[in-house]
Amino acid sequence: MILDLPFILETRRNHALEHATLHMLAHTHTGTMAGHSNPTGFFLLGNFSTQDVWAAATEALERLRGGESGLAIHAGCGTNMATTALLAGTFAWSVLRLAKSTLMKILLMPLAVFFGVVGFLISRPLGPVLQQRITTEANMGNMQIIDIIPVRKGVHRVITR
Question: Are residues 46 and 20 both part of a single domain?
């Protein structure tokens, strides 16, 4: 299966660890935090010390290995945002593309808004399902945290293998 190709599986596992690490950091930190994963690790953005990132990432890895797969799902994930934008936009666009004139588009606007809202409502439970089944992998396998490097103020690079 394509999701099990090494570079994709590694990215999915790092994505899960990124989310779990953000969950751990949220217990002790406030403010904006974000991350970005790739096959060799992930970046964390936020006002954290390197020691706090080490502690959070280590705990996150242990808890994922202990079966807490729900930590791999995060409400602020880009998967949720993309799902919402794509469904709401596609649903609204599908109504408006029927219009042959500007007047017809104006008349169909309330229906397009309604369909956009329906797309939004469907996306709310769908985003986390897509995270669970496609964009993250909570089974860490033999993943190890190799190093955590402060890149610059507010940015850490977590390197995994």
Answer: yes
Amino acid at 18: E
φ and ψ at residue 124, rounded to 5 degrees: -60, -50
Pair 11, 39 in one domain: yes
My answer on whether 154 and 95 are in the same domain is no
- If one counts every other C-beta atom within 10 angstroms of the C-beta of residue 156, the result is 24
Domain co-membership, 38 together with 9: yes
Nearest-angstrom CA–CA distance, 133 and 45 = 25
Overall number of domains in the chain? 2
Give the range of the structural domain holding residue 90, as residue numbers without chain letter.
78-131
Closest CA to 25 of 36, 15, 17, 37: 17
Instruction: Report whether 156 contacts 42 (CB < 8 A).
Output: no
So what's the pLDDT on residue 127?
A: 97
Q: Each residue of 33-56: b (16+ CB within 10 Å) or e?
A: bebebeeebbbbebebeeebbbbb
Q: Could you read off the pLDDT of 106-138 as tens digits, one per residue?
A: 999 999 999 999 999 999 999 999 999 999 999
Nearest of 3, 16, 151, 143 to residue 77 by alpha carbon: 16
Confidence of residue 143 (pLDDT cuts 50, 70, 90): very high
